[in-house]
Amino acid sequence: MKAMSWGCSLLLGLTASLCPIAAQSSTAAPKMKCTVGPVAKQYGKTPWLVYSCDDGKSVLIVSAPANKAVRFRFTFVADDDGYALHGEGQGDKHVTDAAYQDLNALVEADIAALVTETRKSQGG
């Protein structure tokens, strides 16, 4: 599992939103729809909602409404080396750091299980 680069992920997200051309470059990750789910989970002892993505491997984890990590999200994106964990957004840094620690401990089988669980939540 690759370590997450907070600054780089946040900078890339901000750059892509401020400069549409950067988002279209060949190095930018393709946009995916992550709408299967959600499944409620606890990471860092706080509530999160997990959705799986249309590639059948990646997941999006967003802060639940009662979470102090307001408008924060993590993604596990499948790549050649397994998965890359990214995070971006606002909210209480203590909450996001604790969730990151839990998420960073997940292995590929755990992420695949999340995808399966989100599909089952929608009867698929």
Question: Could you characterize the architecture of this molecule?
Answer:
The chain is of the alpha+beta class. It has one domain (6-121). Helices cover 35% and strands 29% of the residues. The protein contains four helices and five strands. It has a five-stranded antiparallel beta sheet. The radius of gyration is 14 Å and the shape is globular.
Task: Evaluate the radius of gyration.
Answer: 14 Å
CA-CA gap between termini: 28 Å
Largest sheet: 5 strands, antiparallel
Model regions low in confidence, pLDDT < 50 over at least 5 residues:
1-28
Assign a percent range to the helix content. 25-40%
Total strands: 5
Tell me the strand percentage band.
Answer: 25-35%
Structural class: alpha+beta
The geometry reads as globular
Taken in chain order, the helices and strands follow as HHEEEEEHH
Short synopsis of the structure:
The chain is built from four helices and five strands. The chain has helices at 6-18, 20-23, 93-104, 108-121; strands spanning 36-43, 46-52, 59-63, 72-79, 82-89. Mean pLDDT is 80; it is low at 1-28.
Keywords:
5 strands; 124 residues; disordered N terminus; 4 helices; 35% helix; alpha+beta; 5-stranded antiparallel beta sheet; single chain
Secondary-structure map:
Layout: H1 6-18, H2 20-23, E1 36-43, E2 46-52, E3 59-63, E4 72-79, E5 82-89, H3 93-104, H4 108-121
Antiparallel strand pairs: 1-2, 2-3, 3-4, 4-5
